[in-house]
Amino acid sequence: MVPYMPFSKVGVGFIRGTQVFNYQHKRTLVNIRLKWVKDRALDAVVTAERDLKAACVLVSIISSSSDGCLPIYHLTCHRGQLDLPYDLKVSTFIRRYPSVFLESHVLDSGGTRVPCFNLTPEAIKLHQEESNVVHQNQSDILNRLRKLLMLTRGWKLPLQTIDQLKWDLGLPYDYQHSVIPHHPDLFSFISLPDDRVGLKLLSWDDDLAVSQLQKNSAIQQEEEDVRSGCLAFPIGFTRGFGLKRKCMEWLKEWQSLPYNSPYCDASHLDPRTDESEKRIVGVFHELLHLTMQKKTERKNVSNLRKPLALPQKFTKVFERHPGIFYISKKCATQTVILREAYDRQQLLQKHPIAELREKFAMLLRKGLLDRSKGLYKKSPGDVFEVDPSKNIVVDNISDYRSSFKEDSENDLLYEYDSDEQHDPC
């Protein structure tokens, strides 16, 4: 990523307006489209976490079982939560990572061997450490969920929508049972008009209704801009982006428009104006700041149009503002990343949960490396150990065979253009 724009304050990536520009409060939406340019550093961030979420979900599921071991047919029932490619078996995925999962076999009623999986000591240790970190940071995690609900109309969201974001927000896998019931003063399960179950915030907190941009601006931007409410977003582009003069002038003008807090009512804004677009950018700027790693898959937010009171095609802001958001097309999906949060591949401010996930990613990579060296390849001399008390046959070493598919470089940029393609909230 190139340094922040040269006409910003030193060390702070803000494009600010000057007296040269004179514009009306309700300026119509300018039809400018900025090109998408690959950012290899941010693509590497996504690629490095290719299977991290799925592996962590499986670890949570296995850990929640009574004996810490589950047959494959139980794990397959959770496939929808793993976001695996449709042609990849759950068992094949698990066998990619022998540093995390151990395979054994249980005999069914017909005497057929059924694969079962438990966790390695290293994975158990990391999961216990994660539980401790979540407990220590429970107040922070709760506030992230509260702020998410405060962004929405009516302070409520379907559980299905929250489930799509729970990994990014740092919520425990079983937050509906382990977190929400312990805070009846904050949350309530409700029945939505479409018969789905939702979660409602019971009270507003003015102290939480301050966006990250407002907090940063109080320190980094000119006092005059803060008083006028014309706050500017940090901007940075991929090296070689080549922003044209016309686009630079539009961007300066756009940055100098009034900033409407995502926690304030914006029903007075005309959705056909640049000021309304700046408010939409502010909503997702804040939403990404609520996530642990300042990124999320585009599909996770494509259902938020109605809860966030946004216009049609609202995700177009990701393409129109590539200096604020980067869309990575790695791993057969689109991941929206907040540029300001990263210095090349490094997350600038790491939450303890994000640090723990880095450790888990390292453990996954270790398993892949060891497997490539043949350390987990079964030899003809291997025998089976039988545990007669549980009628389980345990392999000394399992055969891990899997293949990786190269990422498609097809243009996925418009896969989620229309939020109406998904179930409305």
TrEMBL record:
<feature type="domain" description="PORR">
    <location>
        <begin position="37"/>
        <end position="367"/>
    </location>
</feature>
<dbReference type="GO" id="GO:0003723">
    <property type="term" value="F:RNA binding"/>
</dbReference>
<dbReference type="Pfam" id="PF11955">
    <property type="entry name" value="PORR"/>
</dbReference>
<dbReference type="InterPro" id="IPR045040">
    <property type="entry name" value="PORR_fam"/>
</dbReference>
<dbReference type="InterPro" id="IPR021099">
    <property type="entry name" value="PORR_domain"/>
</dbReference>
<protein>
    <submittedName>
        <fullName>Putative plant organelle RNA recognition domain-containing protein</fullName>
    </submittedName>
</protein>
